[in-house]
Amino acid sequence: MQVDSPELVEKVKHGEIDESLYSRQLYVLGHEAMKRMGSSNVLIVGLRGLGVEIAKNIALAGVKSLTLFDPAPAAIADLSSQFFLTPEDVGKPRAEVTAPRVAELNAYTPVSVLPGQSLTEDLEKLKVYQIVVLTSTTLKDQKLIAEFCHEHGIYVVIVDTFGLFGYIFTDFGKNFTVGDATGENPLTGIVAGINEEGLVSALDDTRHGFEDGDYVTFTEIRGMEALNNSEPRKVTVKGPFTFSIGDVSGLGTYQSGGRYTQVKMPKFIDFQPFSEQLKKPELVISDFAKFDRPAQIHLGVQALHMFAETHKNQLPRPHHEGDAKEARGDLSPMAAFFGGLAAQEVLKAVSGKFNPIVQWMYFDSLESLPTTIKRSEELCAPRNSRYDGQIAVFGQEFQDKLANINEFLVGAGAIGCEMLKNWAMIGLSTGPEGQITVTDMDQIEKSNLNRQFLFRTTDVGKLKSDCAATAVQAMNPDLKGKITALKERVGADSEHIFNEDFWAKLDGVTNALDNVDARTYVDRRCVFFRKPLLESGTLGTKGNTQVIIPRLTESYSSSHDPPEKSFPMCTLRSFPNQIQHTIAWARDIFESLFAGPPEVVNQYLTQPGYIERTLKQGGSEKQTLENLRDFLVTEKPLSFDDCIVWARHQFEKYYNNAIQQLLFNFPRDSVTSSGALFWSGPKRAPTPLKFDSKNDTHLAYIIAAANLHAFNYNIKNPGVDKDHYRKVTDDMIIPEFTPSSGVKIQADDNEEPEAQPISFDDNEEINKLVSSLPDPKTLAGFKLEPVEFEKDDDTNHHIDFITAASNLRAENYEIEPADRHNTKFIAGKIIPAIATTTALVTGLVILELYKVIDNNQDIERYKNGFVNLALPFFGFSEPIASPKTKYKGPNGEVVLDKLWDRFEIEDVTLQEFLDHFEKQGLEIVMVSSGVSLLYASFYPPGKVKDRLPMKMSKLIAEISRKPIPEHQKSVIIEIHPETPDGEEVEAPYVMLKLDK
């Protein structure tokens, strides 16, 4: 499949960015940072698991060139983490066999091999690179290369892993400039007042979010005009709603208005050379529970290097008495963690975006070591196996256990691809009883290729789950026949596929999802079937992991994120003050013009009695009938030119007439009941727009709207150019608009909209509208095509329309417009993403998977992780324990796990059901299943008497009036019990086992 046009390839060669490929990454890094990356040459030394992880992430991110150096022959043990090596490559130079496979990841990143056997023989050849990354390099060579790079202004990153330990070192030279330390959007807000001492108050007690030392600029201030667009001023925070900007004497007296905007000021860092830092390291803490460990590992790593230098570059043997433990192993998840981290540091160095690690960071996961399985020198000895790097740490017995796991992966996107790759490397489910099931309903799109690295351009349009499964089976042939790829969504509608038999066979579940609803559903199923769940997510440079263990930890659904912020309706309709408001409004207009009405028309034409049902609903019946009349009679186009005419009328309706009506209702000089100016604070007085076909935004609106309207009616665009659109619109005569005194507009969201009782005139108008509609029988076969919003197709006019519609409204209200790229981000609710964070987070998940497979029941050994690579910040915490409840039973105190425990009971009668709990010291007050109340102690005796002899399954089916599905082997029942002395008990649910 041809994905890139020759024109696009030519543009990219001249420094333009392929937004369709880099879309999600651009929302993390921005155009400026990516242009800097596009002029950078990167050298990676060492192509074992860690080196190839870094190479993969940098190739996906996009740099000017990527050069690989590793003349050493590939060994069988490399296959435990080097996913681009095959058994056939053993004995061949690592860089030579790896380079072509890295090159496949991104056509815009040329990949080459640096020839030679030693880098240190001729250090001058490093001068062509902006940054050098060293992995699997001796301490002696690290010192030589790092010193040369420091002296010649070449950035250097040194990174390595040893079993469950790893470290990274950075040196970006003297006076390194960080343009944006956090990557967060600049804070902005509305000024409520500025006093003579320079104290600024935010409007309506809005938290400004500043910290001491931030900088701000101002616009639209009246009275202190000299502050507008002046040099950034330093902030001193005085409170959550106030901040000081220092001396404002001589600037006049503040009157009204104004907006403040944070300015990202450059930050300068001096890096010390490697040799100095070795003696006196500056450490970034990765886990505050191990505060003292980095200094210890710093000495330990140097000791390992010293050992290697005196033992022919061999590291200590695992469990050998004279050698250091766990230092020889090569683990895929550690390579993933440090590969993501190191690649992000490379991108920081060449782009100046985000705060770098200064200058060392150590990380270990010793708690991943198995506690239930024996390890010894013999059990951890090499077996000439692709898993030798892992066996060195965990032993053969653990490897066998890992190979026979039955795991379910939900999602095959960015995290899913990385997860499957890691599973392939560690040998998960490769044994006789092992099985992986992966499901994803999505097809591959071009924007996926930038971070979902198992996919290639030839895969665009194919199913993600199929392609991902095929790719990892090629990486590790041991997985052949061990992966089942499905395309079903996991939800209530697919419980006949993911049924109780399916769940019973699973050892665990891993989520790789991008929405809360799906995560919550899978979490609830894991709780019900008592399966461990590994949860993770990313948002740009931020990532998190959560481990959920039955009867030990709380679940994903135990805590909730705050609800997504929404805008007040009257702000969107009449009083926008920021571009997010106009984009949200444009997105609503898109639906109300091109999606809603065509669907209504199709319902009218195909559903008998549609009008009668509409008239019964009340509230919006008039609007529905007007849409039917407009789309079927008065505005029904017969040609593409008619669509252009329609688009021009829409422009007039929204950007001129509606604004004139608003200003008629609320003139510019109107005041509120308290005497304050109505148009002040967040309310900006708009100006009607006069259409100008020579204005690019005006014409863009006409082009997009006309094409979308034509799409609704299946009218083909005959290939008209911009001049044709101009001619049609310029030839139109638009009637003058006269505002009406009968139109009511809500002044704010606190004002109740007036209830409009349907009058005789309204009824008459509705009858006229109904009689104006054509009989559906006369339009047999006629059908409209509703538009389904799709943000990633640049040819469908969707984002073009929303961008133009939003920016025209922004022009009405004198709001700074947004370009197409940022409009797409907001309107499409795009989740920014970058491969580095995904790789790192997945590494953390696998380190928890080791513990899950070990069946470790010590909650203190598990870690939930929170990272932000931009800052950089790493936080790890013990999972929260699942909540417990207790009550006094007949034999003493009974403790129940409120989340994981449940009562299990056969399909007995209601009488037997009540008796069963009475024996356990619980008197049942109410019994329900779903919305059906099966029993209540307050029910009349006659009603209870009829139900007592009925089997529970029959009772449920009768009361709910629907049969229990055939595939269902159990039913959830909720009970509300009390102790004999009347104390309420917070009891878990009951699982009724059916006779199937």
Automatic annotation (TrEMBL):
Q: Which residues form the Ubiquitin-activating enzyme E1 C-terminal domain?
A: 862-990
* Record's keyword terms, sorted: ATP-binding, Ligase, Nucleotide-binding, Ubl conjugation pathway
Q: Where is the active site?
A: 570
GO BP field? DNA damage response; ubiquitin-dependent protein catabolic process
Q: Which domain of life is it from?
A: Eukaryota
The record's Pfam families line, in alphabetical order, gives: E1_4HB, E1_FCCH, E1_UFD, ThiF, UBA_E1_SCCH
Got a GO cellular component term for this one?
nucleus
Kindly give the PROSITE patterns that the UniProt entry links to this protein. UBIQUITIN_ACTIVAT_2
Under the heading InterPro entries, the entry gives: E1_4HB, E1_FCCH, E1_FCCH_sf, ThiF/MoeB/HesA, ThiF_NAD_FAD-bd, Ub-activating_enz_E1_C, Ub-E1_IAD_1, UBA_E1_C_sf
Task: Note the CDD domains from the entry.
Answer: Ube1_repeat1 (cd01491), Ube1_repeat2 (cd01490)
Q: Name the EC number(s).
A: 6.2.1.45
Instruction: Write down the chemical reaction(s) this protein catalyses.
Output: ATP + ubiquitin + [E1 ubiquitin-activating enzyme]-L-cysteine = AMP + diphosphate + S-ubiquitinyl-[E1 ubiquitin-activating enzyme]-L-cysteine
Q: In which pathway does it act?
A: Protein modification; protein ubiquitination
Q: Does the keyword rRNA-binding belong to this entry?
A: no
**GO MF terms, alphabetically ordered:** ATP binding; ubiquitin activating enzyme activity
Subunit (UniProt):
Monomer.
Which family, according to the similarity comment? Belongs to the ubiquitin-activating E1 family.
UniProt name for this protein: Ubiquitin-activating enzyme E1 1
Q: Which organism is it from?
A: Trichophyton tonsurans (strain CBS 112818)
Q: What is the lineage of its organism?
A: Eukaryota, Fungi, Dikarya, Ascomycota, Pezizomycotina
